[in-house]
Specification:
The protein is of the alpha/beta class. About 40% of the residues lie in helices and about 20% in strands. The chain has a seven-stranded mixed sheet, with helices on both faces. A six-stranded mixed sheet has the order 9-8-7-10-11-21, sandwiched between helices. Strand 15, helix 13 and strand 16 form a beta-alpha-beta unit. The termini are far apart. The mean pLDDT is about 95. It binds NADPH dihydro-nicotinamide-adenine-dinucleotide phosphate. NADPH dihydro-nicotinamide-adenine-dinucleotide phosphate (NDP) binds next to helix 8 and helix 9.
Length: about 475
């Protein structure tokens, strides 16, 4: 791995197979939150650029190569893109860590593999999507066709900038759609690089367009564009609600993956050492800027004091470090604004009566950066705001409970329903509780595991529709019924 990647090239828009400047000539800066240094400038897409990208995607779908390509050929190109991701793993990982502040361990060992895995996994589906023949009447030949939607607009957040390209673009493209993707303005570098790699893989111009820019400008233009058939969004609840309302004007299909306040439940009969590891990685992995973070830890009363003590010890050892150091497990928050929000939440928790047993402060590394200590708030009541609202930082709220019914009631008593964890040695209890939890994912004796083959998405306020897994292909296809009169 090379020591530096500097200077990082200025980022361009990728529209119709070309790296271009914005029509307005505008650019914005992207910064490294760990060093507070400017990384490079990025072309800033406006409505005119989004329109150009959508027209290119439309042409590639309606008249162009992608819509008419044999599925096996699409599969080959997507698989090649997965290979190119792996071949460029070091560069992608370093760009991601610079842009987002996450540890290089996560970018290199987890994120790159997930992106490649998405293109490899979904390439396999390109040639396996099929309709049915049905037998409604002997006088008719009736069958269904599973068809792509057309142009998909993907709007993604800053917490998993490159993984989200895989989650959204891989299934959409495998199903035969073309894509216009808007990365978060905070973290555009890896999406642009993936757009370049797609062209290198031989994916034709216009099939995957990348339009970095502001949500309120480029994102809004994508959602309003009449020639976009669907918006697949991951991000905040407020923006998701706004997108849903706006998309109504053009009757666009929408998938929303919004935030979470996921319960991680530790029963007294669990392997408590394993649960301790799961509780800490459940919240501190990704600096807690993870929609599925196990940010509400429910611990059974009989082991509560001992568990909280060990948790505090472990959190204190999880010190923030230089994200480029392979040993670092807690990086910098994405920007100063997010750091302010997280520190504000810690203050709110203490004011509400929670007990601060670890962390709670900003802790610069080498005198700089938006690092926040691994923080544990104990004795939290489920009704407190720190138990109900998404903090999106390395802050764990610990809540005691008594028995299965109380655990399930507290776990479900929240607006969100994205993920959950259960720690127990009792197999029956594990299954019963898994059924009763109102969340899109339940991890039993593990936390924060993902695979391109397992669907991921929300119940309740966490949104609807699924990313990943065979199920997510329904989000990118539609069914046509064909009737043929045999008489
Ligand atoms: P946002 O929801 O604002 O950002 C997500 C994406 O939506 C970004 O690409 C953003 O663009 C874009 N966007 C913003 N406004 C619009 C709009 N009007 N129309 C279309 N697209 C738009 O998240 P934030 O970055 O503001 O994070 C705020 C909070 O959201 C976090 O603290 C966290 O609680 C939650 N969050 C949840 C995530 C999840 O995975 N579920 C991920 C990220 C955040 P832009 O580039 O301008 O930001």
């Amino acid at each position: 791995m090379s020591e530096t990647l500097a200077p990082v090239r200025p980022g361009k828009l990728i529209i119709n197979g070309e790296a271009v400047d914005a029509a307005s000539g505008r650019t914005f800066e992207t910064r490294n939150p760990a060093t507070e240094e400017r990384i490079t400038t990025i072309a800033e897409a406006g409505a005119e650029d989004v329109d150009r990208a959508v027209r290119a995607a439309r042409a590639a779908f309606d008249d162009g190569p992608w819509g008419r390509m044999r599925p096996a050929e699409r599969a080959r190109l997507l698989h090649k893109l997965g290979d190119l991701v792996l071949a460029n793993a070091d560069e992608l990982a370093r760009l991601e860590t610079m842009d987002n502040g996450k540890p290089i361990f996560e970018s290199r060992q987890i994120d790159v593999g997930m992106v490649a895995g998405c293109f490899h996994y979904f390439s396999g589906w390109a040639s396996k999507l099929s309709g049915d023949t049905t037998s409604v009447n002997p006088s008719f030949f009736t069958y269904t066709l599973r068809e792509p939607l057309g142009v998909v607009g993907a709007i993604i957040p800053w917490n998993f900038p490159m993984i989200m390209v895989g989650w959204k673009a891989a299934p959409a493209l495998a199903a035969g759609n073309t894509v216009v993707l808007k990365p978060a303005a905070e973290t555009p570098l890896t999406a642009i690089r993936l757009g370049e790699l797609a062209l290198e893989a031989g994916i034709p111009p216009g099939v995957l367009n990348i339009v970095p820019g502001r949500g309120t400008v480029a994102g809004e233009a994508l959602v309003r564009h009449p020639k976009v058939d669907k918006i697949s969004f991951t991000g905040s609840t407020e923006v998701g609600q706004h997108i849903m309302r706006t998309a109504a004007d053009t009757v666009k299909k929408v998938t929303l993956e919004l935030g979470g306040k996921s319960p991680n439940i530790v029963f007294a009969d669990a392997d408590l050492d394993a649960a301790l590891r799961g509780a800490t990685t459940g919240i501190f992995y990704g600096k807690g800027e993870v929609c599925a973070a196990g940010s509400r830890l429910l611990v059974e009363r009989s082991v509560y004091d001992e568990f909280v003590g060990k948790l505090a010890e472990r959190a204190k050892k999880t010190a923030p470090g230089d994200p480029m150091d392979p040993k670092t497990r807690l990086g910098a928050l994405v920007n100063e604004k997010q750091m302010g929000v997280v520190l504000g939440w810690i203050e709110t928790g203490v004011k509400e009566g929670a007990k601060l047993v670890a962390g709670g402060q900003r802790q610069p590394v080498n005198g700089k950066g938006t690092f926040v200590q691994a923080t544990v708030l104990a004795d939290v009541q489920n009704s407190m705001r720190v138990a109900q609202e998404e903090i999106f930082g390395p802050v764990l709220a610990v809540i005691p409970f008594e028995g299965v019914d109380d655990a399930v009631a507290k776990a479900n008593d929240v607006f969100f329903g994205l993920a959950s964890g259960v720690w127990t040695r009792d197999v029956k209890k594990a299954h019963v509780v898994s059924r009763r939890l109102r969340a899109g994912t339940v991890w039993v004796n593990m936390y924060n595991y993902y695979d391109p083959g397992m669907p991921f998405g929300g119940y309740k306020g966490s949104g609807f529709g699924r990313d990943l897994g065979a199920d997510c292909l329904h989000e990118y296809t539609q069914i046509k019924s064909v009737w043929l009169n045999l008489e």
